[in-house]
Amino acid sequence: MTESNPFEPFFQEIRKIVREEIHAANKGSENMLTAEQLAVALQVHKATVYGWVKTKSIPYFESGRHLRFDLQEVLDHLRKKPDTP
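Request: output the structure for the sequence above.
Response:
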């Protein structure tokens, strides 16, 4: 005979809420690129992207140790950046 946990409905509701919150937090992240993906999109070497990050030459987001880039923001920023001789 299996005993039923009286708190299981509560735990199920908490799990549902957590899943919904994680989904909401990740919404929009499908447009975010890794450094490797950005390098491919811009046709530059990955080291170039990391160099731009180091000098804060392009906009980026940090999530812990991970970097993410919004391609449109990066493109807009690079277009507005004056050329250096």
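The longest helix spans residues 8-26.
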